[in-house]
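stage 2 :: seqdesign
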């Protein structure tokens, strides 16, 4: 007689699964997240459709905080603390009778938010640099865990408080609404950096009583599937070779290193835009508009256009809350160039506590200054043909060149990559590379070519998916899952931007 399975340890295993576990993060590309989301969705739909708005907000906020808790443990309380302080500060700013008082409360909020960000993200960076400058071994790194999405929700709360100070928006009347906005799980990990003036109106009772139509739900589902393909199929597969090339640049030819750099450029685009697609798609399924975060950036013909297409929510944030307050282009050309350089240097430092990120930001700042300086002459050139191609090629080459610094773990690695490409480059290696890494090459060329397909084609494809029968949707879903399984490595690969 067969014995019954031992279920005595099931509660412990379930507790371990649902408890904090930074070694197995809860991400959009993990099976655990989708299992939880499938359980979450019908409860959410019932609460929203039945008009239980307050209960729905509590339920979503609790799920979002659990999402944070699973990845960062009790540090999720930091987000709750930040939300409570800035919600209270926003009301103080709105009710203050003098400009001085309003500025004092704003300064308090900025010091607190930026202080937490600097403490967790840059403490060891400063310690390492002090040790190198002084040679004193007493400066030792401290053990710190970077809270989930700290950089992203810090920027969201700063924009909220600043907008209240500028009287662009009124403070959120309900703390629950503000906590919902700040912790909303689709954009908690790595953006988009959705602003309160765009999101908060969607939390009004009237807005939430509007049914989520079929087109939005299935359109969101289609966007999620595209994000899964970008991340789990393309980015993770391309990463395998990029990691090899950047891991030992002295051991490869110039062609191999060039392909590693090009592959990383496509990898980070597919990884981050894939995450953004999943976040935006999940938001749409739940009935929320999170905007757009990428618009085919590798089509750009200059660096200014690139930053209008790449990580759009960050670009607009840097423009509105750093570049323009510094003076923008209102105080002469020299001041504009300084403002651009400062903005991009800080943008680079925001991405990571390392000099390589600062160099990446500086490179983009210099390119933006050069484009502004030469724009009068560039505008006289014909738009299209050879000039258009050369403009695109130069922009693309500079972006990929700078991504070497973004990916490299040190200046030595970046230097070895650049020197290797420049001194060991032989075009005769291309056929051999394509022969040995034919799957990688085919995937790279296909995805790169798809980047230049006109945007209306993708809009029509989404509309076809929305109108298709359920069996077609199911077959496509199964095909995407199978693709992800076929290309998957042993472990779920984290999104690149979750480390920022």
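stage 2 :: out
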């Amino acid at each position: 007689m067969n014995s019954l399975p031992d279920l005595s340890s099931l509660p412990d295993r379930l507790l371990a699964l649902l408890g904090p576990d930074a070694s197995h993060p809860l991400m959009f590309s993990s099976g655990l997240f989708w299992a939880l989301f499938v359980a979450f969705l019908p409860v959410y739909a019932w609460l929203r459709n039945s008009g239980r708005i307050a209960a729905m907000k509590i339920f979503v906020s609790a799920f979002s905080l659990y999402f944070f808790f699973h990845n960062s443990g009790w540090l999720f309380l930091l987000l709750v603390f930040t939300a409570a302080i800035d919600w209270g500060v926003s009301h103080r700013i709105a009710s203050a009778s003098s400009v001085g008082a309003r500025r004092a409360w704003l300064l308090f909020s900025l010091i607190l938010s930026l202080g937490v960000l600097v403490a967790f993200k840059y403490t060891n960076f400063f310690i390492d640099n002090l040790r190198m400058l002084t040679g004193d071994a007493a400066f030792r790194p401290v053990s710190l865990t970077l809270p989930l999405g700290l950089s992203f929700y810090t920027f969201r709360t700063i924009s909220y408080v600043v907008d209240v100070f500028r009287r662009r928006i009124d403070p959120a009347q309900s703390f629950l609404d503000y906590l919902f906005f700040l912790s909303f799980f689709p954009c908690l990990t790595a953006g988009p950096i959705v602003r309160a003036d765009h999101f908060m109106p969607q939390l009004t009772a009237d807005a939430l009583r509007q049914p989520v139509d079929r087109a939005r739900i299935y359109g969101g589902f289609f966007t999620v599937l595209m994000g899964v393909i970008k991340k789990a199929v393309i980015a993770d597969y391309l990463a395998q070779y990029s990691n090899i090339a950047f891991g030992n640049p002295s051991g490869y030819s110039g062609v191999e290193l060039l392909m590693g750099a090009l592959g990383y450029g496509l990898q980070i685009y597919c990884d981050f835009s894939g995450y953004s697609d999943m976040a935006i798609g999940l938001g749409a399924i739940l009935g929320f508009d999170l905007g757009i975060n990428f618009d085919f950036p590798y089509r750009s013909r200059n660096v200014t256009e690139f930053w209008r297409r790449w990580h759009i929510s960050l670009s607009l944030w840097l423009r509105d809350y750093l570049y323009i307050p510094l003076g923008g282009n209102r105080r002469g050309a020299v001041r504009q160039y300084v403002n651009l350089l400062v903005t991009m240097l800080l943008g680079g430092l925001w991405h990571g506590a390392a000099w390589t990120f600062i160099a990446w930001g500086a490179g983009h700042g210099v390119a933006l200054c050069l484009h502004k300086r030469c724009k009068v002459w560039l505008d006289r050139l014909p738009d299209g043909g050879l000039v258009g191609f050369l403009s695109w090629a130069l922009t693309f080459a500079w972006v990929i060149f700078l991504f070497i610094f973004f990916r490299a773990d040190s200046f030595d690695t970046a230097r070895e990559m650049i020197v290797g490409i420049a001194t060991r480059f032989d075009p005769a290696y291309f056929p051999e590379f394509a022969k040995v890494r034919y799957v990688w090459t085919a995937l790279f060329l296909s995805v790169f070519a798809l980047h230049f397909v006109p945007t209306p084609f993708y809009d029509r494809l989404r509309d076809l998916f929305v109108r298709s029968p359920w069996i077609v949707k199911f077959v496509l879903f199964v095909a995407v899952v199978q693709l992800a399984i076929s290309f998957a490595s042993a472990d779920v690969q984290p999104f690149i931007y979750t480390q920022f």
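stage 3 :: structure notes
- Residues 25-209 form one domain.
- The chain has two domains: 25-209, 214-294+381-499.
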